[in-house]
Prior knowledge:
Layout: H1 2-5, E1 9-14, H2 20-33, E2 38-43, H3 48-52, E3 64-67, E4 70-75, H4 77-89, H5 94-98, H6 101-109, H7 113-126, E5 129-130, E6 133-134, E7 141-148, H8 149-163, H9 169-183, E8 188-194, H10 198-215, E9 221-227, H11 234-242, H12 248-276, E10 281-285, H13 294-307
Parallel strand pairs: 1-7, 1-8, 2-4, 2-7, 8-9, 9-10
Antiparallel strand pairs: 3-4, 5-6
Helix pairs in contact: 2-13, 4-7, 7-8, 7-9, 8-9, 8-10
Amino acid sequence: MASLLDRKLLVLTGKGGVGKTTLSATLGLLAADRGLRTIVVEMGEQRRLPELFRVLPDQAGAETELRQNLWSMSIDPDRALLEWLQALGGRVSGRVLASSGTFQYFAAAAPGAKELISMVTIWRLTKGERAGRKSREGFDLVILDAPATGHALGMLHSPQTFGAIARVGPIASQTQKVGELLADPARSAYLAIALPTEMAVTETLEIQAGLQQQIDRSLHAVILNGTLPRRFSPTDLARIDGLQESDPVTRSAALAAHAVHDRANFQHNQLARLRRRDFEVHAVPFIFTAELDLAAVKRIAQHLARQL
Length: 308
């Protein structure tokens, strides 16, 4: 765990709906319990972490304290644009700059502009800054709950994309610093979150290829979320098969047990598929609960802590 949480930035990505926010909260809890001042960053208008922790979120774009050593924040690219412009524009109001037709055309036409602005905000958090100002205390760790794979790779590639346009001045300087953070294995790490399905594992392989191609990095680890345990030995299965000639209720139970075993076996084959590619893989168990609440997330954290 020390080797992972000692970074300044952890980026979690993967297919939509695989549990990135849940695992971001889980890693945030683990880091906070180690005494690290940690912030989990969501993108867009998402504020799922305050809801999970039953905390009223602060104003948009502000850090919300969830518990001791743990905060969350949501980055709206448009708001980040205003703050970035205020920092770059000196005495000129950010709103005045943002309403400039020339800049609006530039921001719309320049590839990677809004993605880079979001990454600059994240880079500032790793430096203990917010909107160009030093925080009272910096963060030891920033966890980015990144968008789905394609958009996430676009964000991570934005320094190279935008850097081809902005070659001098403060924009170029910030672009370079963001790129250095994303390229430095000592300061940043990338985690793929996936369900144990064939499609999700295939997308994980595509994430790895995209990271290598676009920023010359590799996945630190893959977390398979919602993995079923293997409950039955070959002897157990033989006994279960012998029950299929029993009464209808017992036969239905035997068929259900066999179906669960087959599904778990398939999932563990997907895990083995990743390990054959030399990935570090950690399985998170399926939580049998009606609602994935904070107590369930804490259970996942305890399980993952033992693996990591």
